[in-house]
TrEMBL record:
SUPFAM superfamilies: ARM repeat. This is Serine/threonine protein phosphatase 2A regulatory subunit. GO terms for cellular component: protein phosphatase type 2A complex. The B regulatory subunit might modulate substrate selectivity and catalytic activity, and also might direct the localization of the catalytic enzyme to a particular subcellular compartment. Coiled coil: none annotated. GO terms for biological process: meiotic sister chromatid cohesion; signal transduction. Belongs to the phosphatase 2A regulatory subunit. InterPro entries: ARM-like, ARM-type_fold, PP2A_B56. GO terms for molecular function: protein phosphatase activator activity. The gene is LOC107758963. It holds the Pfam family B56. PANTHER family: SERINE/THREONINE PROTEIN PHOSPHATASE 2A PP2A REGULATORY SUBUNIT B, SERINE_THREONINE PROTEIN PHOSPHATASE 2A 57 KDA REGULATORY SUBUNIT B' KAPPA ISOFORM.
Amino acid sequence: MLKQILAKLPRKSSKCDSFDTSGSNSCNNNTNSGNGIPFANSCTVIATRLNVVKRMSTAIFPTSIVAGGESVAPHIPFKDVSNAEKQSLFVSKLNLCCSIYDFNDPDKDSAEKDLKRQVLLELNDFVASGSARFTETAIAAVCKMCAVNLFRTFPPKSYLSARGESEDEEPMFDPAWCHLQLVYDLFLSVISQSSLDAKVAKKYVDHSFILKLLDLFDSEDPRERECLKSILHRLYGKFMMHRPFIRKAVSNIFYRFAFETERHNGIAELLEVFGSVISGFALPLKEEHRSFFSRALIPLHKPKSLGIYHQQLAYCVVQFIEKEQNLASVAITKLLRYWPVTSSQKQLMFISELEELLEMISVAEFEKIMVPLFRRIGYCLNSSHFQVAERAHFLWNNDNVLNLVMHNRQVIMPIIVSALERNSQNHWNKAVLNLTQNVRKVFSEMDEELVLDCQGKLEEENSKSNIAAERRRLTWERLEIAANYQPVTVPSNISGLVKPATCLVSC
């Protein structure tokens, strides 16, 4: 009975909901619709749009993303429509630019590529003119178009060493840059507009979008990394609510690079952005910022490719120490821990950075680290690599370093004078020997009595070590004599059983 009643009730017409490029639902029947569009063409359009969505890997865009946008044909120039229709045309052109083409084959789809490029140029001019109104629909369309064109997975690294280990390495350029550059310029122009409401845009420029954008910093094309640097800087300034997340995401990139892969193409660009970010930190520094300094920034001195981004890294370290001077001792302690014993080029960078830090450190902080610091500098003075030895000698040309040594000469001079004396007797390079004499003269002018006292103690230690060495030599001579083969007398009662033998006496 119940089934009979339900069978008599009117049923709703069945509809098939398909998600197009804008996230809207469309309905297609098995027969031709009233407007005469055949079913096969409709399926082709849907399949094309689904392929675009498959490439897009960002936040879900709302169904109203192109509301009213399809009423104006995207091929019409902006000047040929009324002001009321320009907004719809803007969205239509953005949707048209969601088509992706293969740029590895320059002859394939050349007409479509040229059309897309012309539309992208129109969009850039339209936004630059200030005529665009950034409603939620327009913002969503911009983000969707940028996501479809920009967000992609890079192929695995084909080289054996990390990029930048050799500064002469030829950069690789993306063949699709003629389109990618226009997309980047459009997105940068949009987020730079003062009329853009960050509270509305954050719905689409969300955490997922930012993560995908940061992943693009690993691009091997330096032009793309340069565009990304400008965009990240604008995003950090525009979206204040995303600042903690951006700092955390970049910290994770640094962690993974320093402690796991040691392979990333965009470390220099990220550090360049964070150089300006750090300069804006309020005082006193938050614990989050101190943790970033000690756990993410300083370990970047470890990788082999330090030379590519050392200038930006040193700038960031200096920015932190200008905020809080007590971080100088932390930085120097970590640098001594990561000291590159087997890499002369990295040692030169470390010494240069140490000199810059010593110009900013306070006397109280300097006293905490001066003993291990100048022991390391003493080793550098005696380095057989003449460039390292020269660079270590040049530290004494810095007035700030001399002042610090002057106030703590009772501790520092015994360490350095012994290194200078060893240099003057053993080093092979004449330029280093001349620099050693100059530093000895500076120390003598600073406190001649202390230098003479240090030299006297050093001579006493050398004489003691010479006496100890002579004792060891005599001891070894006696042992060598005792180790010679000597005959052993065999008792007479067993002489018939055992043949005479010799015994080796050793120690």
